[in-house]
Design goal:
alpha+beta
Length: 67
């Protein structure tokens, strides 16, 4: 594929945030698989569920920092 760089623009990679990766280990495994097929950048797109938005944003930030 040469210098082709793939970007995944829709991932649920943040551990424990929505219906995507449940754990940090699962997130890392997904990242490893993505890397194996040439994905070099990801855009995190967690679901915004009902409830306290501030609490959800804090949870997303914490998950992002752990990852």
């Amino acid at each position: 594929m040469g210098n082709t760089e793939f970007i995944d623009i829709h991932t649920h990679i943040l551990p424990g945030v929505d219906d995507g990766a449940s754990t940090l280990d699962e997130s890392i495994a997904i990242l490893s698989s993505a890397c194996d097929i040439g994905i070099r950048k990801l855009i995190c797109t967690p679901h915004l569920i009902e409830g306290d938005r501030r609490q959800l944003l804090d949870k997303m930030q914490e998950a992002y920092e752990r990852l």
